[in-house]
Amino acid sequence: MSNPPPGENGPMPFVGWIDALPLPAAVIRPSARGDFHVHASNAAFDRLEPSPVGGSAPVALRRAVEQAARHPEERREFSCRIGVGGAVRDLHGTIGLLPMESGGDALFLLTLADRTQQIATERSLRRELVSDNLTGLPNRAGFTEMLERRAATEGDGDHAILLLDLARFSRINEHIGPAAGDELIVAVARRLTSRLRGGDILARTGGDEFAVSTRLTGGKADLRAIARRLRGGFGHPFHIGALTVSVDCALGGALQSSAGTAAADLVRHAQIALKRAKRTGHIEIHGPETERPSGNRFGMETELRSAIEGGRLRLEFQPLIELATGRVAGFEALARWTDSKGRSVPPAEFIPVAEDSGLIVPLGQWAIGEAAATLADWDRQNGGERVDCHISVNVSAIQLVRDDAAAAVRAALTAHEIGGERLMIELTESAVIGDPDRAMAVLQELKAMKARVAMDDFGTGYSNLAHLQRLPIDALKIDQGFVEHMVDDRDKVAIVRTIQSLAEALGLSTTAEGVETIEQARLLSALGCDFGQGFLFARPMDAAAAFDYWRQSRVRPIF
Ligand code: C2E
Ligand code: MG
Ligand code: MG
Hints:
By secondary structure, the protein is α/β, with parallel strands linked by helices. It folds into three domains: 16-121, Beta-Lactamase, CATH 3.30.450; 131-286, Alpha-Beta Plaits (2-Layer Sandwich), CATH 3.30.70.270; 297-555, EAL domain (TIM Barrel, Alpha-Beta Barrel). The protein is 43% helix and 23% strand. It has an eight-stranded mixed barrel with strand order 13-14-16-17-18-19-20-21, surrounded by six helices. Strands 2-1-5-4-3 form a five-stranded antiparallel sheet, sandwiched between helices. The radius of gyration is 28 Å and the shape is globular. It starts with 24 loop residues before the first strand and ends with a helix. The structure holds ligand C2E and magnesium ion (2 copies). Ligand C2E binds next to strand 14, helix 10, helix 11 and strand 18. The site of one magnesium ion has 4 residues, from loops.
């Protein structure tokens, strides 16, 4: 349908452009009761089956039309389904007033994007992302998601979790072979399930790690009783084919110590207890006594503060390689600290201390500034010509919430006269989940400066796909946990494939972390992964070595 003849309600404006719109669209004039006349529509709109107009118009659409007629100046968005029989379509609609000459009736542009495929893909991705292929139990992401849901819906109470780790599982696995190892895991899952109480939830949170979420009536003693019951399941051996295998496990647990303990804290406490259990061989329940920071930690905080103030932190740079071309696309900046005793302290130790003490704010600002300064310096060394790679900087969840990270980026760009497109900010999922609105605001500001954003360690946290889709991010970094052993682990390949298709559906690029072998790089490239980072290409290095590396790569591609 193109332009109709002039209507009874005055001359029609020219709306032939509607044919050029890439999605189903119509120019409509609302009438009473949410009905509307279609004045013009494009072929995509006419093809919608069944037609969203007339008797089969969905309620959400009618309501949106009604409201548009009442408040024409406000743009409306809505979701609806149309369908007959098995053919149901999920549509995302918008209604907006068309600017027009005075005198005529108000006309609106209605667009209906077909999201059926996307929603179906998302649903199946979601299912895959939250459950474990082997046992069908929730995986770590599913478990975390479920904990969050429990916290939100059930309010406070004696909620507790137990973590269970099979003893010497990798040795057993080596001995009986991976297929029998898989069977053993399934048998363990079954035995654990039979020992749960109603309402308990069992998940497989790692290769040989299980987690149980439970509600207690009798406090710590109750939790111990449950743990003993689970451990009792290991009292007799498992029969896998012709094999008889004896397995033991370590069990650590944690109770929600006060109302509003975050799920993440509960998990962390249980992990501390589990670690202790592996050492002692007993069931360990986390108590407040283990929460007190040790003297060592305070000492580290003081030293770290003086290192930041004294400018004694350094950045190292690890290249990000485009897998299709072997070109250096950029570098990730990683903080390095050598303490007063000459020990090189790994970031995994000092970043948490910085986060707990607030030092992460000056540390993060320093890293952003240093990255911009390095780019400016590389440009100078390159004879004033812009070096065609970016630097990725890690920004902690805590910094995102406490500090104006966008302002820090802006200041660094201005100070070093660097374009925003040359910086990429790496955030972890927790940054976004903790405070989605705040994250959204910061990300939008970063976008306005043309800086890019990557989701770091993707797949390890709990991935809220709805947020992911809403957030203006550019890239996913596939956690090295999935890349490790992927060459001979079908489950890991399946996860990487899922993340890859998720990224493609959302128009994001992917970077695989921890690429150590050429086989991994080839497999990742075949799966469609865009970039790789890891010891195969290079270890993190200082700025001068990184600049050399980039220069060399222009003569001879890395991969
Ligand atoms: P990340 O952002 O995921 O960084 C990647 C980590 O993987 C780095 O560890 C890197 O050295 C390591 N890595 C790279 N390739 C390989 C490989 O092939 N095999 C293995 N096994 N590891 C590889 P690093 O430097 O120890 O940093 C650890 C974490 O500390 C980072 O993880 C990041 O979350 C945090 N971090 C580092 N620098 C900063 C910083 O300036 N600010 C903030 N907020 N966090 C930082
Ligand atoms: Mg990172
Ligand atoms: Mg990472």
